[in-house]
Amino acid sequence: MKEKTFSLIELAIYYIVIFFILREWLVPVMELTNTGFLELIMLFIALCLVLSLFQIHFLISGLIKFAYIIWFIVFVYGGVFVLSAEGIDFLFNDFQTNIAAVLRADWLHITNPFRTFLFFILIWMLIYLIHHWIVVRMSVFYFLLLTVFFVGTLDTFTEYDGSFAIVRVMVLGLALTVFLLVKRLLKQANITLDLKKYLKLAVPAILLVFVMSSIAIYLPKFSPQWPDPVPFIKSATGQGGAEVNGGGISKVGYGENDSRLGGSFVADDTVVFLAESETKQYWRIETKDRYTSKGWEDSGYFQGELSVFEHQQIIETSLPVGPEEDTKTATVEVVNPYDFIIQPYGMKSVTSAMVSVLPNLEFMLSLDTEKIVTYVDRAPTELPGYTLEYSKPVYLYSTLKNPTEEIDPVLFERYLQLPDTLPTRVRDLAAEIVGIRETPYDKARAIEMYFKQNGFRYETDNVAIPSEEQDYVDQFLFDTKIGYCDNFSTSMVVLLRSLGIPARWVKGFAGGDVIDNHGSSSTYQITNNDAHSWVEAYIPNVGWMNFEPTIGFNNSRSIEYDLSTDDYEEEVLTVEEETEPDEKIEKETEPKKTAAEESQFFENIAKFFEQNKYILIGILLLALVGAFILYKIRRKWLPKVYGKLYRRKELNESRFEASFLQLLKLLEMKGFKRKEGQTLQAFAKEVDSYFENGHMSLLTAAYEQTIYSKDASAVNVLQMRESWEYLINQITS
């Protein structure tokens, strides 16, 4: 009884240390993902450790753990009692939604409750693995190594400060290593100690660990002797956006600092948001009006003045809105949260389901940039999703060709600004492009087409950065002619302003890719790769109108050609060279929708394999290498596997013959193989000579007696069982 109590106390000490080490895993994850309920997750870990400590039957312990997980999910995400009708309904609906998403391989629509469920299962498996390391292997070296690597990586590449976390992990890990080392030595020596003697061995070593750790913390330390590799690693992996001016590589995506444009960037397919709408369109975020010769800044023309709009209230911007009867809705599901609204052209209002829990929700429109930020109690707030009402403006071609409005230069002074250092040849080029064209629309259209017809190339690699004396636009127009959206859009704005046409630079996202169809609407997936910039020019009589000068991108404006003209064919031809118009895509894919829906599951699987082919190839190669290694060392591990299987089958009279043949198979795996023509008795003597006993000869005699006499009852099964188990243990040791 004392020995059992001692073992229980010993194991409890191990689990207490493991509990605090696991806490060091959870804390940074909770901090970096802004996830709450750390105490409840730690309670689950404690529950698992307690159930493992008292060796509760796996069925009972499994039910308890599963019940806790279900309670946590319903409590956190449903806010209702788990056994209530609402709680059961919540679980059933969530289960149904996620099973459907998994079968479609639609990983983006896996819900947060299901992700939490998988996270708990991962913790469950991890604790089971740790129990195996402690009780069977009596070593936590690999677990300790992984923990230090995990915390160190987060400390290096994220905002988490893991300095003291690593110290705590090392102290706790070394203390646990001491306990397990003492236990392993005692077991090897077959020595049994009581608690007092055990502590006399372990405590001095543990005190030494704590003393040496304390000394190491407070001793003076040399400064780093090698250069910090982190900036280089971040730059190589595309996180060196701040280093662009020094020749680094940026990662594509929306950012707020555009004062220094230029340089290469790397792709990033991280999903930003999903949009469900009837047509593909551009998603506007903000405009900038001051060109500095190196990039764009906000002039602060309105000195930061804001307009406040409430939930479902009409939002008034400087952009035109289409007719009331053409009003449509678009639903935005934000995956990578921002605290601003993503705006379609012709946006009228924003509706959010969060207003029920955030009654003070407001939308603040900056008059300087027209960026709309969501606020709750005057603090910027991220919304997980919202619905937009919009009516896309339609421009009459007759109005564009026959402007009657006189543009007031004073009113649009901010949109005609150009730096004094702008080279004269930029202005000369603008005049040359438009030639004899008279209307602002014709001039803007000529500049838009200029880039597509004069040897410019869209590239994201090896894009030049202007030197201190160079102008960003001048370098692109005359020296390189290579760049991406920032180069094209900025150049068009500058060329328009050179001609006295008010223009501004716009940032946002392009339309993305269709990932699902449902009736008249489609779901578009917009990633960081879709971050984009384009142009808005003020055209008399119609107001601000969007233009797309970047090669490979399709403009999203709608023009009604109420006059006979060749411009319509020209515009459609230009678009078809790059991407098919939204309307045409819908017409062409309409007959295929049924087939696409029927094969959606297989298409998603194919897409998954295409996107992750290199990872899958790597995993396959590792699996092949692992299988080859396992095959080469099969004599070491295969007998142990078979030994465990055979021990589960009790040796009796009816199974004696089969058990003996299984023993011969195990011996062959171990390297003992009968020679051709060798008798069983001669083979048994060789085995007995190796193991220095006579158990194999006894078993062989009993086997031959069973075979030849056809009477297994004459065999002393109890004695044979002892010999059989002894040989199994020797072979698999």
From TrEMBL:
<feature type="transmembrane region" description="Helical">
    <location>
        <begin position="36"/>
        <end position="54"/>
    </location>
</feature>
<keyword id="KW-0645">Protease</keyword>
<dbReference type="Pfam" id="PF01841">
    <property type="entry name" value="Transglut_core"/>
</dbReference>
<dbReference type="GO" id="GO:0006508">
    <property type="term" value="P:proteolysis"/>
</dbReference>
<dbReference type="InterPro" id="IPR052901">
    <property type="entry name" value="Bact_TGase-like"/>
</dbReference>
<keyword id="KW-0378">Hydrolase</keyword>
<dbReference type="InterPro" id="IPR038765">
    <property type="entry name" value="Papain-like_cys_pep_sf"/>
</dbReference>
<feature type="transmembrane region" description="Helical">
    <location>
        <begin position="12"/>
        <end position="30"/>
    </location>
</feature>
<feature type="transmembrane region" description="Helical">
    <location>
        <begin position="198"/>
        <end position="219"/>
    </location>
</feature>
<feature type="domain" description="Transglutaminase-like">
    <location>
        <begin position="477"/>
        <end position="551"/>
    </location>
</feature>
<feature type="transmembrane region" description="Helical">
    <location>
        <begin position="66"/>
        <end position="85"/>
    </location>
</feature>
<feature type="transmembrane region" description="Helical">
    <location>
        <begin position="164"/>
        <end position="186"/>
    </location>
</feature>
<dbReference type="InterPro" id="IPR002931">
    <property type="entry name" value="Transglutaminase-like"/>
</dbReference>
<keyword id="KW-0472">Membrane</keyword>
<feature type="transmembrane region" description="Helical">
    <location>
        <begin position="614"/>
        <end position="631"/>
    </location>
</feature>
<protein>
    <submittedName>
        <fullName>Transglutaminase-like putative cysteine protease</fullName>
    </submittedName>
</protein>
<keyword id="KW-1133">Transmembrane helix</keyword>
<dbReference type="GO" id="GO:0008233">
    <property type="term" value="F:peptidase activity"/>
</dbReference>
<feature type="transmembrane region" description="Helical">
    <location>
        <begin position="140"/>
        <end position="158"/>
    </location>
</feature>
<keyword id="KW-0812">Transmembrane</keyword>
<feature type="transmembrane region" description="Helical">
    <location>
        <begin position="117"/>
        <end position="135"/>
    </location>
</feature>
